[in-house]
Amino acid sequence: MKRKILCFFLAAMMLMSVGCEKVGEIFGGKPLQLISLNLSRGELTPEFSSDVFDYTVEVPNDCESIDLFPQVGKDINMNIDAPKKLSVGQNMITISLSKENSDETVTYHINARRLASDNCELSGLSIGDIELTPEFSADNLEYTLEVGNSVESLDIDATAVEPDAEIKIEGADGLELGENTVTVSVTSPSKLYSKQYTIAVTKIDDTPWWMKEIEKGNDKFLAITFDDGPSRHTRKLLDILDKNEIKATFFVVGERLNTYSDILKDEYERGHEVANHSWDHSYMRVAWSDDEKWENINKCNEAIREIIGVTPTTFRPPGGIWIKSVRQFHDMNVVYWDVDPEDWKYRDTDTVVRNIMNKYGNRKIILLHDLYETSVDAAAIVIPRLKDKGYQFVTVDEMLQIREYYRLLEEQQEQQAQQEQQAQQEQQESSRNEE
Ligand code: ZN
Question: What CATH number belongs to 122-203?
């Protein structure tokens, strides 16, 4: 802005200074040359004398034109060839003088070099799929980002308003746990200006607790689940779970939440997994269409969401009646069980305990029902016993992740074994050939 005002001010001064009409008359008879030459950027004569025909002037990027104020003597014709608008880089202005009835001509060259843009702002900035501009504009130079444990470097894509501006990204690689600062610096092509954009990256340790246990060598996991509730016995069970410091999974029946919404809230707030066991415990037989099934399941999801604000990710079909190969339905994991002590049938604590202790095993899911006090009492007995045997209790959601972890691990080990076998075979064949 200042520069433009100066531009204008100088132009005004020059106009005033060339107001003398006598100038032409005085120099009229002199040789073919400019008497004076002023630019809006400054006066050139006498420096710009007849001996100096070439002159270079540098103008900043925001100056798009130069005003010329040349003075010539009487009877001298002047032709000015100048671009209307200066472009970034070199611009040639030519002033040619000639006399009538004479072949004599004189040419003055002014090379006006308009400096490259001073703009040092970003036009685009993104981290992976996160588009930061225009939100992360010049007015908002700081951005905060949280990443997980596995993120080691950020994929930053930055573009500047000026294509020739220099962009430097620092700190995007080798992220460490805790606070990291990533800076994107932009230097204008003229190198006169630069701007720094800061991204505060906090890397949090999001390794699941069970993964840390596996790394420590503690790899015995069990999930305990309670179906058909909530009921008037569920609070007693919640206290038992707290006392044992474990988390369980509750497959709740939607319509029961009309009566037991407070208990559902309690289950969730105490850190247990809340899962879906249909709206009304209907057996979803093959005759049911997918739409009918989903309508029933989703009604339960909505009831849960209304109470705890979270939508379950896991569904267990009532009675286990479902096509067993289906493990995924409308983004929900369909989960069954591995250990069924038939607590609903026996309603006897000792029998239920015995049945569980006969069938438990690593990475198994135990089925119980918090509808019956006998089942709740059985839980109070089996949980500490299983803990004594080195088992750690996880939710069903965690169990699915653990199973997936081991599935991938086994896959990897199988591949490795195959490769080793193949290598061994090849070695045997080559040694046989040598014989
Ligand atoms: Zn059930």
Answer: 2.60.40
